[in-house]
Amino acid sequence: MHKMCVMGVRTSWRTVADGEFFCPDCGGDRNYLRRTGRRRLTLLGLPLLSRGAAGPVLECSACRGHFGPDALDHPTTLRFSAMLRDAVHTVTLALLAAGGTSSRAVRDTAVDTVRAAGFADCSEDELLTLLAALAADTGRLTGTYDAVTGGHCGHQGLDPCGTALAIELHEALEPLAPHLAPAGREALLLQGARIALADGSYTPAEREVLSTVGSALTLRPAEINRLLAAARTPS
């Protein structure tokens, strides 16, 4: 026998926006409706007294689940891929700026790293052009960039990473770090280490860049030192 609900609370929803998000329940990118509502006390199914506002919530178009607006803090799969690709690109440029580009092995490793990250058409000329543009932007690189030798004429007392370049590393890596598993953060640091080590040992400037990368990825100094030491040991 079906029992009638005499009294209850009903929410009347209104859609105010829409978009795409990473649905926690579906585990993938989905469309959503951003909804607000009003709760009303009902008697025999008829709305009576207002019980206040409801929401806002994000309603998944696929599973119809409701989530708080903070679900938008998690990037979509497409956005996450772009963030990771851009982070690798920024780390690569920072290491080339710190260590120079005179070594063929370094240039090849840098190009391979950026291509593997998603810039499939990246070329050596493209990286060198970007690096020269960074060098022309006052304050981004230490000293004067030599386009012929691919090296830098450093000045005593300047930040080897370059203040503006260090800021760019933090801007590229800090939003990404919360969405990477520990192994992913370590892998990103090690990619940079392989570029630095392609022509031998770390230079002080390369070491500082890698420390900045590790810090932006929320790795502890001891972890950074362990990973950089491990990268120097042939497997």
TrEMBL record:
SUPFAM superfamilies the record matches: TerB-like (SSF158682)
Q: Which Pfam families match?
A: TerB
Q: Which InterPro entries match?
A: DjlA_N, TerB-like
What protein does this entry describe?
Co-chaperone DjlA N-terminal domain-containing protein
- Looking at the record, the residues that make up the Co-chaperone DjlA N-terminal domain are 157-227
- Name the source's superkingdom: Bacteria
Task: Identify the species of origin.
Answer: Streptomyces glebosus
